[in-house]
Amino acid sequence: MTTYIGVRIEDSLADSLTALTKKFERSKNYLVRMAIENFIYEQENDEIDDVDIALAEIALQRMNDPHEQLCTSEDMRDFIRANCRD
User: Which of 2, 22, 23, 75 is 20 to 30 A removed from 51 (C-alpha atoms)?
Assistant: First the structure.
């Protein structure tokens, strides 16, 4: 069973949606349904977002701590090459 839902959107958003229908060769209905499904999934699984936010806050605090020793990705690559075997 399906339910019809009508939505009014700005012209610019409708234009973007039309462009995406051509890019992905999908109908507006399909793209809107996928967008709604993704939004609902993200809202229902927001504990993942909370973890991501907490980890980002910890990383930011560490980056701003003048006593914290940080290394670049190049430093890590050099360390791995020097200390790990294939």
Answer: 75
Q: Which alpha helices (DSSP H) does the chain contain, by range?
A: 11-24, 28-44, 46-64, 73-83
- Structural domain span for residue 70: 11-83
**Which pLDDT score is estimated for 86?**
62
Q: Give the up-direction half-sphere exposure of residue 6: CA atoms within 13 A in the CB hemisphere.
A: 1
Which residue type sits at 63?
A: M
- Is the CB of residue 31 less than 8 Å from the CB of residue 20? yes
Segment 21-48 shows an average pLDDT of 90
pTM of the model: 0.53
Average pLDDT for 73-80? 91
CA-only gyration radius of the chain, Å:
23
Number of domains in the chain: 1
Assess if residue 49 is contained within a domain: yes
2 domain residue, yes or no: no
Residue 1 domain-assigned? no
